[in-house]
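Hypothesis: this fold can be encoded by more than one sequence.
Test: take the structure tokens below, design a sequence, compare later.
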């Protein structure tokens, strides 16, 4: 059992179905899903558009490898590229976020001919050997060392330190536009622009890991759009298939032209790409990113008003919200689950992470605020 498995009567909560922003346990209890399984279901659970697309595709063709053109894959490619910032004209599908980041680092090295990767403290990019090497916390890395070399870490958000680290031997700078696992850390204004300028000057690739921040979560389809910065490589996964296992890399032409061969057997399978096309199309057509921005602003305002000095900070963008607590986040998440039927996630020891499906409204936001107020406000001694 992991650190944040929640138990009822001594047993983990078993989930049997979901609908919209709600999950239903095997005993019938309804839970508000404020974690979306680490942002994997932006449209909520069992969204009809995704269910219909997947069911139809399974009935027609479950799988054929990417050597053969398949309409669902072509539709998903087009939807993904159209949704990304201008200039990212090529894409490759894979099976997860860590695979997308592995590919991004490989593409950067082969396209630039350099080897050094610059990453940030408190970063998280995945658990395979390459992406793990660019992940900050020893908790994830130490059992598997030695990892791939030539990775340098700099403090997240510090443009001067980043400038000192980037030179003509840098293959890539990889950053989360807002750090997720590291504590919902929002960079200072101008930081992503500085990263863009430095990589341009050095001839290095700028990689934005949007595995958690993408798919409308921050109020834009992609978090980097809020800063007006387009990377050379953008990685995505989690919410890309609204719960199905899929990742992707979107790249500029100079990366695609210079990248060495890379592939995976299950890359762009028909069923998962049917889910991708349905998810992206629905997010864009129904304007869920804008809804996330509106409800996210409301949620943050209400949290700040209700919790006041009982927490250190409420931060984030859209429906990517972190609450810096004065106590352990696992304990608060457990109390939310067991006392208020709300499922949330920690992001480090003291940050509670709220990543609800983008389809929540003010009613669900109020429920979150009321529950957190009941748990946190009485603890005036902490």
């Amino acid at each position: 059992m992991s650190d944040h498995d929640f138990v009822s009567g001594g047993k983990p909560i078993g989930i049997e179905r979901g609908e919209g922003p709600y999950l239903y346990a095997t005993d019938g209890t309804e839970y508000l899903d404020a974690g979306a399984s680490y942002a994997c279901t932006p449209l909520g659970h069992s969204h009809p558009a995704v269910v219909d697309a997947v069911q139809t595709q399974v009935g027609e063709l479950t799988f054929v490898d990417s050597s053969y053109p398949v309409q669902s894959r072509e539709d998903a490619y087009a939807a993904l590229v159209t949704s990304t910032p201008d200039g990212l004209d090529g894409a490759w599908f894979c099976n997860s976020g860590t695979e997308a980041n592995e590919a991004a680092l490989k593409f950067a090295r082969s396209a630039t001919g350099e080897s050094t990767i610059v990453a940030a403290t408190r970063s998280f990019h995945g658990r395979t050997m390459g992406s793990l090497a660019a992940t900050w916390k020893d908790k994830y890395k130490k059992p598997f060392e030695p990892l791939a070399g030539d990775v340098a870490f700099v403090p997240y958000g510090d443009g001067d330190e980043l400038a000192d680290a980037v030179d003509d031997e840098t293959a890539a700078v990889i950053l989360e536009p807002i750090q997720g696992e590291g504590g919902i850390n929002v960079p200072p204004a101008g930081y992503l622009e500085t990263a863009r300028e430095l990589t341009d000057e050095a001839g290095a690739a700028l990689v934005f890991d949007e595995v958690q921040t993408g798919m409308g979560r921050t109020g834009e389809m992609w978090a980097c759009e809020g800063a007006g910065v387009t990377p050379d490589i953008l990685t995505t996964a989690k919410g890309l298939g609204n719960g199905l296992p899929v990742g992707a890399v979107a790249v500029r032409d100079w990366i695609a032209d210079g990248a060495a061969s890379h592939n995976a057997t299950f890359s762009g399978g028909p069923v998962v790409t049917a889910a991708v096309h349905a998810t992206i199309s629905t997010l864009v057509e129904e304007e869920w990113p804008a809804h996330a921005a509106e409800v996210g602003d409301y949620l943050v305002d209400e949290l700040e008003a209700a919790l006041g000095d009982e927490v250190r900070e409420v931060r984030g963008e859209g429906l990517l919200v972190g609450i810096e607590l004065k106590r352990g986040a696992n304990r608060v998440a457990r109390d939310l689950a067991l006392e208020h039927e709300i499922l949330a996630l920690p992001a480090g020891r003291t940050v509670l992470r709220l990543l609800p499906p983008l389809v929540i409204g003010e009613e669900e936001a109020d429920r979150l605020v009321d529950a957190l107020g009941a748990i946190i406000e009485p603890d005036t001694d902490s």
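The first strand starts at residue 7 and ends at 8. Residues 142 and 288 are 40 Å apart (CA to CA).
Hypothesis status: open.
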